[in-house]
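Thread: quick sanity check before group meeting

JM: Hey all, I'm pulling together slides for Thursday and realized we never actually wrote out the predicted structure for the chain we discussed last week. Dropping the sequence here so it's in one place. If anyone has concerns about the input, flag it before I start.
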Amino acid sequence: MLKKLTQIFEKHFMPISLPHVRMCEEDMSRYHVNYVWINRQAGPLEDVACSVPLRYLDIAYENARKYPKAQFTIWMDRALLDPRTAFFLASHAYFDAPDNLNFADLRDISVYAQSEVYDVEKPKDIWARVDLARLLVLSHQLNDADNKADFQLYTDFDVPDVKLDCQRMYRILNHHGLFVGMTLKYDILENGYLSFNKTAGKEFLEKDLLPRTMNAAKAGLDGYKPLVKTLHSWMLSQGFWYFRGRVSAPRQEMMGYVVPENPIYKDHKLN
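JM (edit): ok, ran it. Output follows.
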C-alpha cells in the first residue's frame, strides 16, 4: 500500500525529469518577448503630459538590454492615445529604447480590431481587455511567417527580470511547449508571464485557452479563471495533477504591486 501511494505521489506531484537540453547564449534569439499596454479610456489624462507610465517602459528597455539576442515588442492600442502622449512615447523611445525593441499597434491584429471587446466607445472592463489582448498578441506572433522566434513570450511590465537565461524554462518549453509564471512570493499561479512554442503550445493556446478567454472578455470578465481551468484540464490530459515545477516557476510580483514612481517623470509632470 505504501509503495503504491509513493508511486502515485511521484507520478502526480514530483517535478518530472526533463530531457537534457543545453542552452547557450545564441538560444536567447529563439525568444520574442511581448508587452501589452492599453489605456483605460481614450484621450489625455489630467495633470500629466503622458498617459502611459514611462517607468513601465523603462523596465521593458532594461530587459531588452539584458537579453540583446532576443527580440522585444511593446504593443499598444494607438486609438486610445492622444497626440501629446504619442509624442512623448516616441521621444522616450528615441533616446532610451535599445535596438532589439520595437513598438506595434494592437489594432494591426485583425481579431483585436474587429472585436466588440475593444470598441472605443463602449470598451469592456480593462482587465478583460488586457487579459485577452496578451493572448491575441501571442497567437498573432506564432502565426506570423516572418517571425522566426520559436518561443513567443508575454510578460507584464512589473516582471523585473524575464529570465530568458533560465535553463529549466527552456527545457520545459522544448518538452511541453508552454510555460506559466508564478508570483515571486508564495508561488501563486499568475497570467502575467506566459510562453508558448509553435507546436503543442500554439495548440493549447488557440484550441483551449484563447476561446475560453474570449468568451470571458465578451462578458466583461478577466482571463484568470479561464487560464486556471484550461491549465488544469491540460494537466489531467498529461497524466499529472500538479503544475509547480512542471510548467511553472516564479516570475512576477504579487497582485497589487505598483512599480515605484520615477521622481524625474513625476516632478516634471510627465506621469
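AS: nice. The radius of gyration is 19 Å. The longest strand covers residues 189-197.
JM: adding both to the slides.
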